[in-house]
Amino acid sequence: MLDTAIIGMGRWGQTLVDSVQGRNDAGLRFVAGCTGRPERAAEWAARQGVRILPDFDAVLADPAVQAVAIASPHQMHADQVVAAARAGKHVFVEKPFTMTKASAQAAVDACRAAGVVMALGHNRRFLPAVATMKALLADGSLGTLLHVEGQFSGPGAIAYKPGMWRASRAESPLGGMGGMGIHMVDMMVNLAGRIAEVTVQSHARVIDNGLDDTTAALFRLDSGATANFATLAYAPRYWRIALFGTDGIAELLGHEHLTFTPREGEGWVRDFPKTDIEAAELAAFAAAVAGGPAYPLPVDDAVHGVAVYEAMIGAAASGSTYRVA
After folding, report:
1. Which residue ranges form the domains of the chain, and what is each CATH number?
2. Which of 14, 65, 93, 261 is least surrounded by CB atoms within 10 angstroms?
3. Is the peptide bond before 96 cis (omega within 30 degrees of 0)?
4. What's the rounded Cα separation, in Å, for the pair 197 and 219?
5. CB-based contacts of 213: which residues, under 8 Å, 6+ apart?
6. Parallel, antiparallel, or unpaired for β 51-52 and 28-34?
7. Comparing 11-20, 34-43, 138-147, 166-175, which segment has the lowest mean pLDDT?
8. Is the pTM of this model over 0.90?
9. How far apart (Å, rounded) are the C-alpha atoms in residues 305 and 317?
């Protein structure tokens, strides 16, 4: 069992802990952690058997902690990953991984140098429907991939108030990208390969808290295929990814409803069972630490995702097309 500390005990940090705590099949248990406002998490932590330590340094100094799961503000991730690696702790880090490609590469290099496992929390990689979409691409059912469409939206920005870290443009450039859209970037990379260049429009159409609520992008992939994408931070919750090929179309609406439409003949529709993707990603992290299968998100993809995000920020600010470094 991998004894792990949770870094950040806000809503998402608690979600990660709750997904595996007390489950013998997870391979991981949370034993300690730290948070910016411990008084808010004290009752929950006591209930889950999580010791609240004074700060991040105290977590790293604790010999009982073998790994950390980082669910802190985005700007803190890079330094925390590097410090954890140097302390010999395995690292699971929430998205966005870091805010710049250079810091992402430095974090990966630190983990490699220390010989620790680093895992990035893009949990939609663990959806069975996504595995089926990858199989359709691999077996030729879609033919040559021409185009990808994606959207991940939700009304989270309504709740962002002045003083909240998520309400800062430094933490949440491009509106919903940090909380939602970055997942769709990873999904496109996972399914269709790397992104070569980006063009982005991002603005506030209705909200007035300083953040954008509407972000849309056009991508060109290394393969030559194109992609378009949107994340809306003031719309009902919505998830969709669609692959358009010469011989077929695969469309996932929500996490479970997959439709395949061939150019000729009968298509099909499949509804997959709900999957606890938070538990799945943490179990995969624990298995990788234990010497099992490698975590199914290569660290080079983690760095590339940050490079895409960084290019999107530049493209939106300049109104021009940016190549992904």
Report:
1. 2-123 (3.40.50.720), 125-323 (3.30.360.10)
2. 261
3. yes
4. 6
5. 157, 175, 176, 203, 204, 205, 206, 207, 232, 233, 234
6. parallel
7. 166-175
8. yes
9. 19
